[in-house]
Every structure is written in structure tokens, then in C-alpha cells.
Amino acid sequence: MSQSLNPNVHADVHVAHDAYHVEHNGDGHGHHKETFITKYIFSQDHKMISKQFLITGMLWAIIGALMSVLFRLQLAYPDESFPILETLFGRWAKGGQIQPEFYYGLITMHGTILVFFVLTGGLSGTFANFLIPLQIGARDMASPFMNMLSYWFFFLASVILASSLFVSTGPASGGWTSYPPLSALGQANDGSKIGQDLWIVAMAMFVVSSLLGGLNYVSTILNMRTKGMSMTRMPLTIWALFFTAILGILSFPVLLSGFILLLFDRNLGTSFYLSDIVVAGQVLPNEGGSPILYQHLFWFLGHPEVYIIILPAMGLVSEVMSVNARKPIFGYMAMVGSLFAITILAFLVWAHHMFVSGMNPFLGAFFVLLTLLIAIPSAIKVFNWLTTLWRGNIRFTPAMLFAIGFVSLFISGGLTGIWLGNSTIDIHVTDTYFVIAHFHIVMGVSAFFGMFCGIYHWFPKMYGRFMNNTLGYIHFWGTLAGAYLIFWPMHYQGLANVPRRYYDFKIWSSFNQFNDLNKFITIVTIIVFLLQLMFVFNFFYSIFKGRKVRTQNPWDSTTLEWTTPINPGHGNWPGEIPEVHRWSYDYSKDGREFIPQTEPVNPNESRH
């Protein structure tokens, strides 16, 4: 592997790290005594901040998943009443039946929570914070203070979003995309009142959190790698998190501008998105705005967003797969190149969400071409994962099973993306259950599989204990089967033109054929939800009672995070930061099962 272009940069960073180490008494802690508040709440240690992101994300995941259980109950049993719902939700579930306005609120909040607060904040916030300094050989992030702020903006956004569930008019209910004019007019419905304002402010805070984190991740990766850690020696996890951060830095500000203009339209009487609107017979004075402008601003983030979610999962899966197949990752540079290609193309396909917005079909054709092109780097990754598995000496740990499950979901969910990327088909199935089936499999569930894979694999490094394997296996098989049983049948509903976001289908005789299927999907949803609660139990129980890690490197892995103590202090390495001599994937080489990155290269060694 080539040496770093500028070794002096790394030498300087190394000296700076050692100065940091001297200042911190060599034990990883500063001179001042740490209190509960400085250690667990306002912590500037990247490892603690990653745990804060992870646990906040898990709480949100439970709330978001519970919402899906509630609206699935409505879809499966539209005429039944469940008295417990009235006890829990009061007038939102009058007579034990979820009310239409609450149903739309549930759907809006479910999408917002899962896409942004769990799969963006929870996934990137956890693993970028945890792995970047440990895998590149840094004491901490470039700016630990900015890193702490990033979490607290995320927490503030969470509090504001959660508070919108308790206002008298209910939460935002214009869909997770919040298209105007519905989201821009307070008089449109109850869900467009104060709940919508709180939603926009929470999302603005979330964007600030993502930008603070992203700038930190990029500057840390570019400037703080240890001696010998050239870019081409970085693990694929770091490459994936690097490109994810760049995507966020370039696309989130556009979404923020879209939200600010929406707040202006709602509260200051402007007309960025409003024109020629009549509400209840009254002609509104707004002129000259365009709701399509909002769609462009939203989807300019909204499409890179799906890669902001899936790229970290791809990085985690690549790493776990190589470690547990006991083989070097196949096609390292092709993997990096495909991550780069996805990052570029992610910015050029946003209008495929807008084929039915009245877009010129000629312009649409360009977006069809670019959308289908993005399948190429995705396919390269899939072939490389399969080739890494081929004839490997595979250890089926829970993390490895989730990594393999990720590839399965990514292939089967990605195939339907080829249908939807084609405008002639998309126009017919847009806003049907086909779209729900596609993006839940390829982006939702597979990103969760990447997240689970990372949690099971790095849990010993996070907490110094192992999670329970038996519960891990039950969690994997139940979730994989459940995910396919829930979302695969929805493709057929979509092809039969069953529209998404509808509250009740019983007045359409053509959709009544799916009554039993809706019941089946709902029962499976409840089972899968209970399995996730089992995972949460396993997680928290294992923090305190799990089997203790006895060795520094329990997975026999080559990367730097396993050269730290079992429970690393603030600063990660008690002595000098190790120097790197080789790439991250020397497995099954020269008769040895693995060779750590820190081991100097023997001149007689075979080239990988």
C-alpha cells in the first residue's frame, strides 16, 4: 500500500497526541475529578457521546415502531374497537378506535422519527463518533466540544418533536415530507397548527446537529490519522462514514432553507410555496409561490438522505463480513470507488420522487437514466460482499448474520428500485404500497440490519461485555422472516393500486380482497415489535450482567480499536498511539489467521 502523501502531517499529529497524553497524566483522565454530570451528561469523550446517540436513538426506535403497530391495527381491524386505546390516547381514540386525524399524525411522526432520529441520528451519530477516532488512531474528535453540542442539539430536537405529541391539536400530520400547501396553511386541519411548527423547529435543530457532527467527522478523518494511516489503509467503515458526512454537509443546508421558507409562509404571510388557494370558499391573498419549489428543496436532501442512512450500514457490514469470513475484503479500491460514485450520483437523482408533479417528461428521462446508473456502484458492492463470503471460513456470530441479512434485503429491496426508477412504471405505482414495500426493505429494514450488525460486533468494545448470543440468534431469524412477511406482500397490494396513507379501505370493493392479508401483516408486525423489545432487553441487561470480555481482541480483528484496553479511558490509548504499517484486511495470509495493522511488514511477505 502507498505511504501517506505527507508523512509530516501525521508526525505533527502524533506529537500533538503525545502532548495531549502528557497533559492527561497518562491515565486517560484530566487533572480535575470527573463528576457524574461531566462523565455521563456533558461528556466530551467521543465514546460516551456515541452511547448517548445510541440510547436516544433506541428510545426513538421503540416509539416509532409502536406507532406503526397502532396504525397497522387500524388497517387490519377498521371496525373493531380496542377500549385500551381510549384509555391511553383519550379523544384521539374515541370509542377505542383511532381517529382519522390521529392516524395521519401517527404516520407522519413514524416516518420522521425512523428516517431522521433513528436511522440518521442514531446510526451515524453512534458509529461515526465511536469508530472514527478508534479506527484511525486519534485521541478524540477534532473538536470534542462541537461533538458534545452535536448531541445536545439532537437531544433538543428530540424534546421539541416529542412535545408536539402532547399539544391539544395533535402532532404534524402532513406526511413525513410535509408538503405545502397542507403544511403551510394552519387552517388546513388540526395537524397543520402548532404541531407542524414544532415539527419544523425540531427538524431545524436536527439539521444543526447533523452539520456539527458532519464537519467534525470530516476534519477528524482528514487531519488526525495516526502515523502510517494513509487514506488507502483506512477500514471501509471510515470511508463510508466520511462520504456520509460529506453528503450531509452538502445537502442538509438546502433542507434547512426549505424549512425556514415554510415557517415564513406559515407565520409571516409570505408566499414562497402558496398561490391561488381557496380554503372553505375563501380566496387567500397569496400569489406567485410554488409548492413544487418545496419538493425540489426537500428531495435535494431527501434523496441523498437515503444514502446518508445506508452508507454507514454498508461500511459496518463490509468490516464485520471481512472479520467473520476470515478473508480480506474483496476489491477494496472498487468498494471505495463505488462509495464515491454513490456519493456523486446521490445528488443527481432527487427528481425521481417528482415524476407525477407535472415535470416535463423529457427532463424526467435524464433522472431515469441517472437513477438506473446508481444501480451500478450498488451492484459492485453486492458482488464484492458475495465474493468476500465465497469460500470464507465463516463464523456465524449474530453480527455476521445481520451483515448477511443486510445483503439479502439490499438485493431484494434494490431490485424493485429499478421498477420505480423508470418513470413509465413509477407514474402508475407512485403513492401506492409498492413504494412503501420498496423503501422499507432497501432503506428501512436493511439499514436497521446494518445497525444491529454494528451493535452486536462493537458492543464488547463499548461496554466491556458480550451480548447474549442465543437472544441474538432469535432476534435475527425472527426479524429477517418478519421483515419479508410484512413488506413483500405489500408489493402485490401496490400493483393492485392500493394507495398508501389511507385510513380505511372498506368502501372500495376492489381492495376488500386484501382484508385477510392486512390482518396477517399486522399480526407479524406485532411479533416483530416484541422481538425488538427483546433486543432492547438483551442490550441493557448485557451492559450490567453480560459475559465479561477477557481478551483485548475478542474477534481476532486487524483494526486499531482492538489495540486499546478492554475499557479504554478518555484518550483511548494509555501510552503512545500505535503506528500503522499495513492495510486493514490482512486475514488468512502467509499461514496466519490475521495480522494486525500495527505489525511491521516483513520484506518476504506475500503481496495481498
Account of the 3D structure:
The chain is mainly alpha-helical. It folds into 2 domains: 41-289, Up-down Bundle (Cytochrome C Oxidase, Chain A), CATH 1.20.210; 312-325 and 339-551, Cytochrome C Oxidase, Chain A (Up-down Bundle), CATH 1.20.210.10. Helices cover 62% and strands 2% of the residues. The chain has 18 helices and 4 strands. It has helices at residues 7-23, 36-41, 46-76, 83-89, 100-118, 121-136, 144-163, 194-223, 236-267, 291-325, 332-346, 361-373, 375-389, 398-420, 423-429, 433-463, 469-495, 515-545, and strands at 278-279, 282-283, 587-589, 592-594. The protein has a two-stranded antiparallel ribbon with strand order 1-2. The longest helix is centred in the middle third of the chain and has 35 residues, at 291-325. Mean pLDDT is 92; it is low at 1-31. It holds the Pfam family COX1. One of its GO terms (molecular function) is cytochrome-c oxidase activity. Its main location: membrane. This is Cytochrome C oxidase.
* Name of the CATH architecture of the largest domain: Up-down Bundle
The helix tally amounts to 18
Helix content: 55-70%
Q: Topology as H/E string?
A: HHHHHHHHHEEHHHHHHHHHEE
Reported for the largest beta sheet, the result is:
2 strands, antiparallel
The CATH homologous superfamily of the largest domain: Cytochrome c oxidase-like, subunit I domain
Low-confidence stretches: 1-31
Termini gap: 9 Å
Structural class comes to mainly alpha
Q: For the largest beta sheet, what order do the strands appear in spatially?
A: 1-2
* Rg value: 25 Å
CATH topology assignment of the largest domain: Cytochrome C Oxidase, Chain A
Strand content: under 5%
CATH class of the largest domain: Mainly Alpha
Number of domains: 2
